[in-house]
Amino acid sequence: MVKLMDDEVFQAFTTYAAVVIVKMLLMAPMTAFYRFSRGAFANEEDVALKSADERKKQLRTHPDVERVRRCHQNDLENIVPFVVIALLYTLTGPSLSNALLHFRVFAGSRIFHTVSYVCSLPQPCRALSWMIGMLSTLSMAYSVLGSVLVL
What pLDDT is recorded for position 21? Predict the structure, then answer.
């Protein structure tokens, strides 16, 4: 394990995996912020201490909260596969420059995806950022399969 931690490609993987995972984790507090600031809660127990009138008003959805939730869901659908594929890619021994290119492109695309989603930037901003991240992950998957495919 110590040898693996000395490998520059593995260090790069660890760095960028941590960056996108922390970004994904920060979506939960962002959702909470939007829930409280918009007064839109999903569960009865979240508004249990409020009056009956307040409960009716606050037990609802809000477009801003739903937008952040969808962004978080999209992170889960893309960052988890990236981490798995990128780890396998790292274990195939790619060059540092190729690995950094894949990792940086993915991390940058996910950060821009979040900004474009939460700030409601016009399309195709969000779609392009998603596509670029997906292509980075697929490129690594192709490389992994090309290195180790056994049928």
Answer: 98
Query: In the chain, count of helices (H) and strands (E)?
Result: 7, 0
Helix, strand, or coil (residue 21): helix
Contact 81, 31 (CB under 8 A): no
pTM of the model: 0.89
Contact 109, 74 (CB under 8 A): no
pLDDT along the chain (151 residues), means of 10: 82 97 97 89 77 76 91 97 97 96 98 96 96 98 91 65
At residue 120's C-alpha, the angle toward residues 58 and 22, to 5°, is 80
State residue 138 phi and psi, 5-degree precision: -65, -35
SS3 (DSSP) at 59: strand
SS3 41: strand
The CA distances from residue 19 to 12, 24, 60, 67, 151, in Å, are: 11, 9, 33, 22, 35
Instruction: Map tokens 């037990």 to a residue.
Output: 59
Query: Cis omega (within 30 of 0) on the bond before 94?
Result: no
